[in-house]
Amino acid sequence: MTPILILGIPLDFILFAATLVGVAIFHRHTLLIALAGLVTVVGYKLAFAGFKTGVGLSGLALHMQHEWVTLANLFLLLMGFALLSAHFEKSGIPDEMPALLPDDWKGPVVLLGLVFVLSSFLDNIAAALIGGMVARHVFRGRVHIGYLAAIVAASNAGGSGSVVGDTTTTMMWIAGVSPLSVLEAYVAAVIALALFAVPASIQQQKFSPIVKNAPKGLQIEWVRVGIVAAILIAALAANVTANMKFPALLDHAPVLGLTVWAVILITAPLRRPDWELMPATFKGTIFLLALVTAASLMPVEELPAASWQTALGLGFVSAGFDNIPLTALALKQGGYDWGFLAYAVGFGGSMMWFGSSAGVAITNMFPEGKSVVMWLRHGWHVGVAYFIAFFAMLLLVGWHPDLPR
């Protein structure tokens, strides 16, 4: 089969780019556009270009056999963590947060710091949703889009230096990269947090100030707190155990997602999950899976030569292109400083609302965030922080690449 080129560019990329442009412009119809884009790309691959794994339906089947674990994990985590966030909201803890946070713009800064820390040992989706739920309560339900972008950025930055904090860093760990090599990503991540947290918090404080005092007579529902803790602890334990003891299992089963749902179902008799959230969450989840699947079909066989310039560029690319295949290609190629790559592909997706699973999760909770124009306009500080922090890390740490593979 012969791929079609237009001005030297494979038609696959043009179709995928058109899908992203459609999502950016028609943000009220993102699911329909993403599904239409995926169907178009698959149809073109079937008729003309073929797949990396072969041609026709057999090639498609083999490709999906390779991708299904990643897609299943994303589906289970996004759906499951939406229920977790509802348990967390009903526990009463978000209503108590005004008593713990400063009363002025420093309160939103502290909340972003908490999201950052949570994401270092939890999945960044869970950290972002917990941060969004607290924000909904302490800002009277009115959260600025610039602050939504900052919550996503804090969750992605917090996971970038931890091998259990993000899918991409976990992939590096499985591939044999030392956790200490990934850890240096926190040099840039902490600088980035300091850069975007203040302007985002000032935006939020002007838009809807933080509640100064917690409502009186609140009671924490400790059963729901226990359910939230059980889900998060089980997810963390499953992630660490599978990576250390049974790494091959991660290629054959969505271990993390299944663990989260096992705890949700086991604890359901204690407190009923908020099943009513599932239809809206399902739509947002299918949107992300459509984009991730389309990205995995792109004919990216290799990346440019490994360098800090390439790593910097991959951060911008990951804002619109799934960072999982980018990371897989980088691991295959070698020659990167893994701390820089972890920061770039982990944090870079924060620059667009659909550039990371945490961004999609947050916009499921706050649909007004599903506008690329508004996200870029009000979340400008995220892109600026990414760029400045990358060069600060280059100056402070230096580029120390691994050997090519």
TrEMBL record:
The answer to whether UniProt assigns keyword Transmembrane helix to this entry is yes
Which keywords, in A-to-Z order, does the entry hold? Membrane, Transmembrane, Transmembrane helix
Would you indicate the residue range of the signal peptide? none
Q: Please give the name of this protein.
A: Citrate transporter
Q: Which residues cross the membrane?
A: 5-25, 31-48, 68-88, 108-133, 145-165, 185-202, 222-240, 252-270, 282-300, 306-328, 340-366, 378-399
**Recorded GO terms, molecular function?**
antiporter activity
- BP-aspect Gene Ontology terms: sodium ion transport
The record's listing under InterPro entries reads: NhaD-like (IPR045016)
What is the originating organism of this protein? Rhodopseudomonas palustris (strain ATCC BAA-98 / CGA009)
Look up the coiled coil feature and give its residue ranges. Answer: none
